[in-house]
Structures are given as C-alpha cells and as structure tokens.
Amino acid sequence: MGIVDRSEPMKATASQGRPIVRMRGVRKAFGPRVILEGLDLDVGAGEKVALIGPSGSGKTTILRLLIGLTEPDAGTIEIDGQYLWHSSRGGTLERADEAHARQVRRCVGMVFQQFNLFPHMTALQNVHEPMEQVLRLKRPEAKERARALLARVGLGEHVDKRPSQLSGGQQQRVAIARSLGLQPKLMLFDEVTSALDPELVGEVLGVLRELAHETDMTMLIVTHEIRFAADIADRVLVFDAGRVVEDGSPEIVLKDPSHPRTRQFLRAILER
Amino acid sequence: MAGESTFVYLPYLMGGVVTTLQITALAMLLALPVSFLLALGRMSSFAPARWGAGFVIELFRGTSAVVQLFWAFYVLPFFGVELSPLAAGVLVLGLNEGSYFSEVVRASLKSIVAGQREAAVALHLPRFYTFRRIVLPQALPIMVPPFGNAAVLMLKFTALTSLVTIQELSFRAGLLRSNLGVSSDIYGVVLAIYFALAVGMASLVWLAERAVNRWAGREVIPWRELTSRRASPAPKWAFRR
Ligand SMILES: Nc1ncnc2c1ncn2[C@@H]1O[C@H](COP(=O)(O)OP(=O)(O)O)[C@@H](O)[C@H]1O
Ligand SMILES: [Mg+2]
Fold it and tell me: Boundaries of each ABC transmembrane type-1 domain copy (chain B) (predicted)?
C-alpha cells in the first residue's frame, strides 16, 4: 500500500436515487494493517455497480462488511435506510446487538469466489432449504421455486446432483440461485468467476448479465472482467489502497481515468 | 487337566464378558453427550462456559482414573452420594472418555472450512439449523473412526472397575487363577475373548461409519457391490466422498 498519493480521495457518494448502501467513515483494520480508513460509499437502489481494483485492496472486505460477516472498527453502515450495527435512539447512535444486525442484513445476498456450496446436499437442497429456513416457506413450495430458479440459471437437469458432480461453472450458478432464492434487494458478487477455468467463465457471466438486465435488484460486483463490467454496469468504482480512486460511468472511468495509477492498473488487467 | 477346567469355567467367564460389554457400552453412551457438551463449552463465546469445560476436561484427563474410581466409590459416600459399583464405574469411565473425546469433537467441528459457516451467515440461516444441517453432517463422519478407537480402548479399560468390586472379565480370570490355580490357559482364553470382542466392535464401528456417512449425505458403496466378487475390488474402507 501507499504507492498512490493520498491527496483528495474521490467521494463515492454521488449517486442517483434512494441509497440502499450508505457507508460513512468506515474503518477496518486487521491487527496493525489498516485496510479501510474513512471510507464513504453510496449505492443507489437498483444500481449495477462494478467494483474493480488490485488484489488486496479491500474489495472483499467491503462486501463482507455489507453482509455482516465482518464488523467495522469505526463508522456507520446503512442498508436500505437502517443502520447495520447501530440503532438510533433519540438522535444518538447506540451499538446494536447481533439480532438487530441479522434483521437488517436479511435483504442482502452474497456469492463467493469459492462458491461455498454445502457439499453434502444436492443442488436442489442447497437452494430450497435456505428458502424454508429464512422465508418460512413450506417445503413443496420452496422446492418448486428452487427448481424454477435452477432452471433459470440453466441447471434444470442437474437439480439432484451434488456439488462434487458439477463443474465449477455449474456450482457457481447453483450458488447464485441459492442467494436469489432469498429474494435479496442487494446482491454482492465477489469475483465469482475467478476460481473458474476460462471456458466456464462465460456461462456465469451470462447469468449475471441476465440478472443485471432483467431485474431491478441492486448489484455490487467485484470483478476483474473489465469488458463485462463496462458492458453491464451503470457505474464503475476503482478501488485502491482502501480508497475509491475513480467513480463514474463505465465509459468515463474505463476509457478516460483521472489517475495515472488507474490507467496502469486497467492496462495490466486488460492485457491478461 | 487344566484345559478341561478352562471349559468348565467358561460360563463363569462369560458372565464377566457380559459385564465388560455392559460397562463399555454404557460408558461410551455417556461419553458421547459429555464430549459434545464439553466441546461446545470450550468453543462457546461465553467465557465461564469455556473455563468450566476446560476445568472438567483437565480434571479428568489430568488425574488418575484409578484414583477417580476410588473417589467415586469410597469417598463420595462420605458426602452423602452413594453410587452402586456399576454406576461409579460407568460414571468415571464415561466422564474420562468424554473429556478425552471432547477434543476430537472440537477438532472435527473446527475442521469444517470457514467458507461453510460464512455461507450460512450470508444466507441468514439460523444458528441451530447451521449446526444441525451444515456443520454436524460434515463433522460427524470425521469423528466416527476415532470414536471406534476409543470404544475398543474402553473395552480394555473396563478392567479398572474391578477396583470397585465389579466382576468383569479380567477380575473373574484373576479370581480363577488365584483360587483354583488354573492359570496359563485361562489367560490364553481371556486373551482370545478380548480379541474376539475387539474384532466384533471394529465391525460395529465400520457399520456405524457407513450409517453416519449415509445420514450425512455422503455416498457409500452399496453393500451388494462390496460383497459381490465381480464388482470392483474396492476395499471396505474406501468411502467415496
Ligand atoms: N481475516 C483477516 N485477517 C487478516 N487480514 C485480512 C483478513 N481478511 C483480509 N485481510 C487482509 O486485508 C487485505 C484486503 O483483503 P481483501 O478485502 O480480501 O482484498 P481484495 O478482495 O481486494 O483482494 C489483504 O491484504 C488481506 O490479506
Ligand atoms: Mg477479494
């Protein structure tokens, strides 16, 4: 860290519409290593935002903060108008309990780089059991919806297979269906194609593309697939050393970045 | 002839076998929930639960089981707790094994990769469901082989309970030897009996392993495929994952 000049960080807060994500002054450190410091970030409801940046810059950490896997050291996070870790009593913020955070983050879904499917369950069970647990659906209805979701991601014929019987691309599509089953308002995608063989990347990006075009779900997508980002995102954020260094439409950020370091970074990943 | 007397006293020895098996089964049955409670205690986010579980584990692992047996049977009555020999033996052996085995349980539960718990959190799954349906089915198959190991050890460990007047197999063999002078071949027979019991136990463990794997949703080679000669020569321990 520290290659980039620390003057005037870009404020990633100017977004249209009602924000579904509002991060203010967020700090996160692991031991002595400060990963995020004074991070402000807004994402408007329905926006498709691509988050790009070098490895180790804290992109995963942001997603983990948003779904409550990690707690910030300082600052506030609002999800759909509610504080994630705080409750506001008479104008002052108080530390809220675990139950509060659970309830606030309910509308957030996340798809992981390594899929994290439950290996002892079939594709169908992976999808319908969370629906039963979280949406309190009856089993037949949950199964029916799960089948429909799996069909939608092109896995209608594989519902009874275990993750180990599926390719990486198929597993990742099950993982996407599993998250979609809970009807999130905000979906977080963490480099969902990075663990895949090159020939399997397309099928997963295809699913994301379809979601981006056909739903009004907010999507925050961490990716190294720049062309894909340019294609589907309303907005691209370039992240470096814990700060947002570029924020704007794909045309502007990807074709005419304001920081030399961004240009260098973009060139590096475009050449891969 | 000595050989003759061995067979004469075989029914007497068999009575000891029944007692040995009974104590083994009861002690292992007690050890199982105890080990889970202690493991969960040690993994708790509530500090007193961690200390309490840690204390119990070190108490039983750190002191001699012989002394514990004496305590349970001869000292506890002074505090108004009268235990039958069987209860004292099962309690001490069960708590001992529970303390040791709790570390296996804890390690197995911890071996579930972080990504599985993180997926459960990211899917907003309730804690108990996560434990029962995601962690346990992946951890339990790991625990079965060491549990079988512990059960076979327990079989031999039960000889200790003769200290609290329980007439298990070794005790009866010793009695025969000292009272009647039937000696070397008695111990040969006792050795064979222990061996047969251990083999029987190992087979049970193998069946349990298959049952647990099947319950946990792992693929298990069908019985028919294992027994038919034509099928692939898959060794019986080859569980497909
Ligand atoms: N649990 C953790 N403990 C210690 N360091 C961590 C932890 N999680 C992430 N980090 C560190 O934080 C930095 C940012 O990580 P991450 O958010 O995963 O970056 P990115 O996703 O942009 O590659 C990395 O240097 C990583 O090593
Ligand atoms: Mg990452």
Answer: 17-208
Q: What pTM, to 2 d.p., does this model score?
A: 0.83
What is the atom index within ligand 1 of the atom nearest the CA of A239? 22
Q: In terms of CATH, what superfamily is B2-226?
A: MetI-like (1.10.3720.10)
Taking the centre of ligand 1 as the mean of its atom positions, its distance from the CA of residue B160, in whole angstroms, is 53
A189: nearest CA in chain B? B122
Q: Are strands A48-52 and A74-79 parallel, antiparallel or unpaired?
A: unpaired
Domains belonging to chain A, first-starting first, are: 2-270 (3.40.50.300)
Structure tokens at A240: 């470096």
Give the distance (Å) from ligand 1 centre to CA of residue A32.
Answer: 12
Please state, rounded to an integer, the average pLDDT across all residues of chain B.
87
| Residue A122: count of CB within 10 angstroms of its CB | 20
Q: Tell me if chain B has a CB within 8 Å of the CB of A1.
A: no
ipTM, two decimals, is 0.90
Angle at B50 between CA B48 and CA B51, to 5 degrees: 65
- Structure confidence by residue, pLDDT tens digits, B31-65: 999 999 999 999 998 999 999 999 999 999 999 98
Question: Measured from the CB, is residue A125 less than 6 Å from ligand 1?
Answer: no
Task: Judge if the beta carbon of residue A242 lies within 6 A of ligand 1.
Answer: no
Smallest CA-to-CA distance from A19 within A96, A77, A91 is with A77
